[in-house]
Design brief:
The protein is α/β, with parallel strands linked by helices. The protein has a single domain, classed as Alpha-Beta Barrel (TIM Barrel), CATH 3.20.20. The protein is about 55% helix and about 15% strand. It has 11 helices and 8 strands. An 8-stranded parallel β-barrel has the order 1-2-3-4-5-6-7-8, surrounded by 6 helices. Helix 1 runs parallel beside helix 3 and helix 8 runs parallel beside helix 9. The longest helix is centred in the last third of the chain and has 17 residues. The two termini are about 40 Å apart. It binds SN-glycerol-3-phosphate (G3P). The site of SN-glycerol-3-phosphate (G3P) has 9 residues, from helix 7.
């Protein structure tokens, strides 16, 4: 399973890259607002840190506007994935962009039907939002399972990029279903390291080691 980090914070991206966990980055307009920096500059800097896909989202809602913005964004680096919303114009732009060999991440997916038509439009990634789905009383993981089944039935190569991840179990459940990618905030990716028994084990081993009076090297 690939891990993308869902942030536009450069320091966080650098730290994750050093752990070897980082396979790509996803941004969105809200994350750009949170980072408080120029969008294009930020994406350009992210591209100096990772060779993995970097999602940069268009904000135009019409096809021509999306294509104009995509043109600016895809020039930043060869690993930019243009993020388009799951709308008619978004899928039209998706079809055109992927036809040109550009990576496209179709975002704001909340149904299996939407995921199906995104794959038909040639999306490189489909982003179902599991956390926001859970928030309104649906099970986000049921959606991931449905999409996995549908894509397998027809051998669609569109990668399932699980988004709106709120906790480590979202990642574990998505991995069990066979989702291709999870994008998560830095905090959630860091939580993957944690287990209280690991901490207790380290404390116990250290205590006993100190009692031996030995040193390594
Ligand atoms: O990048 C899109 C998605 O991951 C947003 O997550 O937590 O705002 O629902 P959230």
């Amino acid at each position: 399973m690939k891990f993308f980090v869902d942030t536009a914070d450069i320091a966080e991206i650098r730290e994750l890259a050093d752990t070897g966990l980082l396979d790509g980055v996803t941004t969105n307009p809200s994350l750009i607002k949170k980072a408080g920096r120029d969008f294009i500059e930020t994406v350009r800097e992210i591209a100096t840190i990772t060779d993995g896909p970097i999602s940069a989202e268009v904000v135009a809602l019409d096809y021509d506007g999306m294509m104009r913005e995509a043109e600016v964004l895809r020039k930043i680096a060869r690993n930019i994935a243009i993020k388009v919303p799951l709308t008619r114009d978004g899928l039209k732009a998706c079809k055109r962009l992927t036809g040109d060999g550009t990576l496209v991440n179709v975002t704001l997916c909340f149904s299996a039907a939407q995921a199906l038509i995104a794959a038909k439009a040639g999306a490189s990634f489909i982003s179902p939002f599991v956390g926001r789905h859970d928030d309104v009383g649906f099970n986000g993981m049921d959606l991931i399972a449905d999409i996995r089944m549908i894509y397998a039935n027809y051998d669609y190569s569109t990668e399932i990029l699980v988004a709106s991840v709120r906790h480590p179990m979202h990642i574990v459940e998505a991995a069990k279903i066979g989702a291709d990618v999870a994008t998560a905030p830095t905090k959630v990716l860091m939580q993957l390291f944690n287990h209280p028994l690991t901490d207790l084990g380290i404390a116990g081993f250290l205590k006993d080691w100190q009692a031996t009076g030995q040193a390594i090297g």
